[in-house]
Amino acid sequence: MNKRVAIIGIDGGTFDIILPLINKGLLPNIGSFLSDGSWGTLASTIPPITMPAWPTLITGVNPARHGIFYFKCNTHETYDEGPLVNSSYLKVKSVWEMLSEYEKKLIAVAVPTTYPPIPVNGVMISSIRPAHQEQIKTYPPEIGEEITRVFGLERIKVEKLNIKRLRRNMRYSERSQVFSRFLTFHLAGIEKLADMVTYLMDKTDWSFLFVVFQSSDVAQHFCWALMDKEHPNHDRKLAERFGEIIYEIYKKIDGAIGRIIEKAGKDTTFIIVSDHGAGPVHKGLYLNNWLLKEGFLTLKNQRRYRIRIKKTRLENILRRLRMDVISERLPRSLASLSLPVIKKQMLPPHEIIDWSKTIAYATRNGININLKGREPEGIVDLNEYDKVVDTIKARLEEFVDPETGKNVVERVYKKEEIYNGPYINDANDLYIATGDSLYLPLKIIDNGDIIRRLSPNAVSGHHINKREGIFLIKGPHCKRNNRLNGLSIVDVLPTAIYLLGLDIPEYLEGRVITEAIKEDTLKNNPPRYVRMDPSSKIEKGRLSKEEMAELEAELKNLGYI
Q1: Which end of the chain has the smaller Cβ count within 10 Å, N or C?
Q2: Taking 60 as the threshold, does the pLDDT of residue 223 lie above it?
């Protein structure tokens, strides 16, 4: 059996986009997996979001065992305002630690939960922040200097699309310019990522490769309405020019996959995966407003915003006042002059909630009970916990959209229904599954409607309602033209370890996807299991204040926090 495996991640990859493009002959490299290998949908975590989905995939265990439930941690201690997690927060071994112990040389590039990079037997380029490719972090550190020099990353700026700039009253030329830059820079970013991966493949005698292309997820968040004529925020004029941005990015990723396959050679097993699917979102589900109206949450009698003074360039002030003509005629020295502007800043929910009278509160990831002895100002006794959980669950599952008369929530899960492990108490008490509905759960409190249409400067696509990711596999030991069913995100790691010819740790929760593998391979090389200490040996670290602020800004921009 060959001893080389390459996993290629398409963040947010969905067959809803991929299969139509394959049928048109526009994704030849991904399409080859359908005839030359096996494929099927991959059930993600609940909720199906980057964190905890990628950590679950790279550890092979559920969040209550690896310890990462969301982008932030310490939810119960801080009422959802804890620090951002990083690579050192994993409580169990990741694939990187595991393969390093097996003395297998690896290459990991831009995989979520690799920032900051950890010591490995090989090369790790941490999850790259699109706006700052020149600031990549690597192990070993000198690889970062080499990559930056060879590919001129210090001269590249891949601009993130700040959705808040896309006001409906902006001129077409301004909106057009933003989307044009977005497409140009992300296509360039995918190309550079492929350049780096193939360069490292030449330099390293690797056994295992894992790279993730994240531009697909970003594009689906920001550009779904351009593609989707049924979306309430669909702009027909912009769509004429930019309606295929998502398709263009998938096609570019397909080309990058082709380059990696060619470089790796025919003796490699290739796996393409995503952490979740993607789909449109039309409306916001304001969970704290629902809890407020249902009597589970109480607000303080105070102002819900703070006044702040922010310096803003004169040209930006004039543009907001629709005085572009004046702005364009000003001397550069005057246009760039910074002036103080008074702004209202909404206070975060935890500052306006009266915790002495609040039974439950919503986070961006679920609902928590204000439990006595656990939350800082908890009031619910432990003997009342189950009753409160059951009541909220039942009422929320019965809640209907007054506009449509249909249920908003497909199902509400208790944490015990989806998680098991020593860190389950760090999870939210309830998780909301919206199914195929078009609702995006939000934690904002404004005493307004519980259901309302998302504004044009909100994301138009998401994956909180799309649990079905993708899995495709081909190689010398894989069956051809084979459709797969019943796959879980925890199955990816044991399958990859098996195909590397290694013993599979017994503690992994997934299975080897044997139905994708040839019978003679399984007969001659049956899966072998071994006892292994699951504990991660990586020392826990924290990001700097600057890194935290920058990453939080990006997550807010994507609609995560």
Answers
A1: N
A2: yes
Say which amino acid occupies 398. E
The pTM score is: 0.90
**Across-strand partners of 488?**
43
CA separation for the pair 480, 216 (Å, rounded): 27
- The pLDDT score that the predictor gives to residue 266 is 87
In a 3-state reduction of DSSP, which class is residue 462?
A: strand
pLDDT of residue 128: 53
Summarised one tens digit per residue, pLDDT across range 122-160 is 999 986 554 454 457 899 999 988 988 888 776 555 455
Instruction: Point out which residues pair with 139 in neighbouring strands.
Output: 124
Question: Strands 5-10 and 208-213: what pairing?
Answer: parallel
Per-residue confidence band for 349, with pLDDT thresholds at 50, 70 and 90: confident
Please report the pLDDT score of residue 513 as a whole number.
Answer: 98
Cα separation, 529 vs 502, in Å, equals 9
347, burial (CB in 10 Å: exposed 0-12, middle 13-18, buried 19+) = middle
- H-helix or E-strand containing 286? strand 283-286
Domains of the chain: 5-281+464-530 (3.40.720.10), 283-303+348-453 (no CATH), 305-346 (no CATH)
Report d(CA 280, CA 246) in Å as an integer: 13
Compute, in degrees rounded to 10, the torsion defined by CA atoms 41, 46, 50, 52.
-120
| Alpha-helix residue ranges (DSSP H) falling in 228-280 | 236-242, 245-264
Closest CA relative to residue 497, chosen from 101, 45, 35 = 101
Percent of the chain with pLDDT over 70: 85
Phi, psi (degrees; rounded to nearest 5) at 156: -110, 135
Give bridge partners of residue 188 from the DSSP assignment: none
Specify the DSSP class assigned to residue 353.
B
pLDDT for the residue numbered 435 = 78
Angle, in degrees to the nearest 10, between helices 28-36 and 15-23: 90
